[in-house]
User: Which sequence fits this backbone?
């Protein structure tokens, strides 16, 4: 049986992504440098502070655990709760456990898609996508393969625009 021309087109998933852990690599590098600096500082001043070798070692364990643990939790949170979903009709952005999801953007309302990356992010293959509509902007953070996803969104917008012009 043929579908009626008046029936709305079924909404189908085109892309489903989320925050890439690679976007956190610079944070982990800074965390590693701070951990090394803390180790050097504690060992350099352990005698001045009157710390035994065991106490200095346990202090280092605590400092390193806090620094690295905070980054691991932060990365885990972002990769778990920041989700992006593109369908043939809308773009959804899940922002987290404690925040309400941003209202979806209709694909037909998207005016432009811009890729934003630092030089390091470009080498890592991650970045941000700034989706501009006439009313509001939406930024997708930590997107893997940003150029491909931006092109995918632009093609979908173009297809939706052509389809609406035909009607």
Assistant:
């Amino acid at each position: 049986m043929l579908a009626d021309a008046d029936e709305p087109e079924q909404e189908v998933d085109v892309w489903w992504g989320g925050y890439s852990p690679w976007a956190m690599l610079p944070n982990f590098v800074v965390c590693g440098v701070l951990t090394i600096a803390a180790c050097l500082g504690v060992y350099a001043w352990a005698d001045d502070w009157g710390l035994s070798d065991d106490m200095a070692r346990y202090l280092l364990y605590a400092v390193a655990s806090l620094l690295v643990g905070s980054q691991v939790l932060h990365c885990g949170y972002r990769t778990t709760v920041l989700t992006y979903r593109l369908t043939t009709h809308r773009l959804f952005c899940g922002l987290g456990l404690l925040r309400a999801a941003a209202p979806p953007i209709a694909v037909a309302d998207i005016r432009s898609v811009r890729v934003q990356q630092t030089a390091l992010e470009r080498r890592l293959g991650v970045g941000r996508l700034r989706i501009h509509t006439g009313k509001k902007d939406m930024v997708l953070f930590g997107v893997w393969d940003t150029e491909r996803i931006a092109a995918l969104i632009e093609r979908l917008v173009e297809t939706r625009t052509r389809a609406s012009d035909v009607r």
Observations:
- The chain has a mean pLDDT of 88.
- The beta strands are 13-18, 83-87, 90-94, 102-106, 110-116, 126-133, 137-144.
- DSSP finds four helices and seven strands in the chain.
- The chain has two domains: 13-19+82-166, 24-78.
